[in-house]
Amino acid sequence: MxxxxxxxxxxxxxxxxxxxxxxxxxxxxxxxxxxRLLGQSSARIRIVTEDASPELQAxxxxxxxxxxxxxxxxxxxxxxxxxxxxxxxxxLDRRVSADARRHGILVNAVDRPDLCDFxxxxxxxxxxxxxxxxxxxxxxxxxxxxRARIDQMLAPSLGSLASLAASLREAAERLLPKGSRRRFWNxxxxxxxxxAAAAGDMRLALESASELLLSQRxxxxxxxxxxxxxxxxxxxxxxxxxxxxxxxxxxHDALVPEAVVAMGRRDAERLPVGKRKGCHSRSQGEINxxxxxxxxxxxxxxxxxxxxxxxxxxxxxEMAALxxxxxxxxxxxxxxxxxxxAADFGLPLTLRGVTSSMVFTTGxxxxxxxxxxxxxxxxxxxxxAVYMGRSVAAEVAGRLIEAGLSPDTAxxxxxxxxxxxxxxxxxxxxxxxxLEARSDLAGPVMTIIGDAVAGADLARSEPLAVxxxxxxxxxxxxxxx
Length: 481
Ligand code: SAH
What we know:
By secondary structure, the chain is of the alpha/beta class. It is 35% helix and 17% strand. A 6-stranded mixed sheet has the order 13-14-17-15-16-18, sandwiched between helices. Helix 5 runs antiparallel to helix 6 and helix 5 runs parallel beside helix 8. The two termini are 46 Å apart. S-adenosyl-L-homocysteine binds next to helix 13 and strand 17.
């Protein structure tokens, strides 16, 4: 039973039943339940029974169903689009099912899954909108609970609003350029027309929809520089998620995991622009030009960057290009790698009485004059977070020690912070150079240096370097320290 746990054995579809005949065989409660369910469709309902309960008779009268007041015979199912065997008589239900199947008609037999070609869902009906809930028999109670929750979520006016939308679809297609239709429908379903419909005023809904339709300007592009966080999908902000859902194009760096990129709108275009160390697939200038040209074409662009877009993300250059081109843009902050790394270590970045400032730096500016400045800060007790520091670890350590920082200063290193496969290391500034030689660290690496590191939870981390001993200890043994 469990082997197909993640595949649907019954797949939901919406069957066209307008004007089709649906046959229900049976006269009791089960038949009435099916009649009520199918009565929500525009199918013609034919009920075959000699002993209809008074309730069923009343329902037939009120709903104008056909009633064949005779013992069931095979010809009763002929020409039907669907048959329900709901007689409560197992032998009869089996016959009905067999007859239907012989004619290739879809059949459902109450409480007999083996005789069923399909199951009926729990239904939230806001015609023309329908939500069908199926559990493949896992439990009607579960289906009803879900049904109740969805029912609460959907405004009673949704059906009228959807009908209005259907009646405007052609006009929208005629009047609006392709790029601006989505925005119109967003505003339609979430803006003034939806509010008017919710208040029960469909005339006002139509008026405001028409106004909205006529006021649409040609699509204006927009670029959001969005922080994707350190890698875990659930460290994305709600705003980032919303923008991803609205984006026409997602331009992303190599460091942003596939799972995060996948959170965007299904039909959004996805453009990887590389920028992993050593394999720049597009130059920064090309990326700037790409963003400008996408926005000029009226696209809503999400420029997805790992961590926070304003921390070592070259966002400054992209924003300048957008500003120069007069393109509307915004920045959505994200959780930067240093914060994720600190969280993975339980490492306080500021520590009362120990350190009250922090430095975000990179090992890559060593040739510029930047290092002396932050080295000075490190000496005066700041916590230092080093981005892109793996291949220059020795140089960073050397320069800090040279500037006067004790070789015993605590260091924490995290590879793949926030991700399930993260690895944590701890050691001292003197151990830091060993990072360069570690070819086993293929993921992004964050290094945090400073006295505050001593306040971290080091229990689950490995030593950064195995110090010289008489018999070198294997790394795993060190994990016990
Ligand atoms: N804007 C990003 C930084 C981009 S620079 C941010 O705010 O985090 C790329 C560097 O970030 C990497 O070399 C590495 O030092 C760091 N980094 C990014 N993601 C990381 C992760 N999950 N774990 C550890 N370091 C990470």
